[in-house]
Amino acid sequence: EKQGFEHYMLKEIFEQPKTIMDTMRGRILREEGLVKLGGLAEVEDKLMHAGRIIIVASGTSWHAGLIGEYLLEEFCRIPVEVEYASEFRYRNPIINENDIIIAISQSGETADTLAALREGKHKGALVLGIVNAVGSTIARETHAGVYIHAGPEIGVASTKAFTSQVTALVLITILIARKKYMSVVQGKQMLDDLQKIPANVEKILAQNDYIRELAETYYSQRNFLYLGRGYNFPVALEGALKLKEISYIHAEGYPAAEMKHGPIALIDENMPVVFIATQDAIYDKVISNIQEVKARKGRVICVANEGDEQIEKHADHVIYIPYTCKALTPLLSVIPLQLLAYHIAVLRGCDVDQPRNLAKSVTVE
Length: 365
Ligand code: M6R
What we know:
Layout: H1 8-14, H2 16-24, E1 28-29, E2 34-35, H3 44-48, E3 52-57, H4 59-76, E4 80-84, H5 85-88, E5 99-105, H6 111-122, E6 126-131, H7 137-141, E7 144-147, H8 160-177, H9 184-205, H10 208-218, E8 223-228, H11 233-247, E9 250-255, E10 273-277, H12 283-295, E11 300-305, E12 317-321, H13 329-347
Parallel strand pairs: 3-4, 3-5, 5-6, 6-7, 8-9, 8-10, 10-11, 11-12
Antiparallel strand pairs: 1-2
Helix pairs in contact: 2-8, 2-9, 4-8, 4-11, 9-13, 10-13, 11-13
This protein binds 5-amino-5-deoxy-1-O-phosphono-D-mannitol.
């Protein structure tokens, strides 16, 4: 049921404070700064000693996987590859003895992701799942895994599953990291920050009317560019995918610094650019990318942290989000991009819950 919302997608966007909480529920031991994941209990040691983690997924789940790469490499110091399942399955991939495969899938039925995990299993890898649909094929065929507990996702555009997948990846990261390089204090700190995410998502959702107004300014554009760095690079990809799949506007996501290597040629007054420019070590670099866009008459929408007033000098429009540690930023920075895509699609008269040519779960190649 849509519970008074005009579309399932909007309902699911607004559910995120709860669904992120549901992913964490019962899994956090705050005092010890530890995470408990029943579904991984038997493979914890193997995870800790993994030589490499290979994440296989498609679409939005692949974007969550990219964030997983940043998390697992930074905090667990385990090398991670993120593979499109469709490419991995046919590439005769190299699997070494201590490699672990993690398949990420909302539906648990995506044909390519399933085939990739079967291929990895066949070559002897331990195969884990991060899945929403309980009892789905991927959940059944993996050796172990984590359910994200986001509840049924009806809108074809994945929203709440994404934030729950990222939350699950944060939990897995802390689970492993605490056995290796992460102290109890660091574990506690990250878990405290994680537990504040739902209330912070709520604050962003409260800006829905403002984001709708922004959509009114931009909905007739034909192209969009999304740029972000670090943990926000996958968010740029996800923001662009949301827009293109439901509004049919051509949109591309890039790591902000790649702009100079090609996309900058596209920039003029008809190429709005969405920057994710939250406060972190590479903030200044993102600001100079913004200036480069402005110098070429591009219109700039920025997702920035509350209190960052200097950004208003550079951007045409700013959407403010609360500050959180950089590793958790995607859980907040993606929310305004989901809303922006939603409102633009509605203003264009598109069927947001059932976009043309798309199926909720892609069970054929
Ligand atoms: O069910 P899955 O997570 O395996 O689905 C993967 C993709 O098909 C899916 O994320 C798709 O890209 C969405 N429509 C994105 O919103």
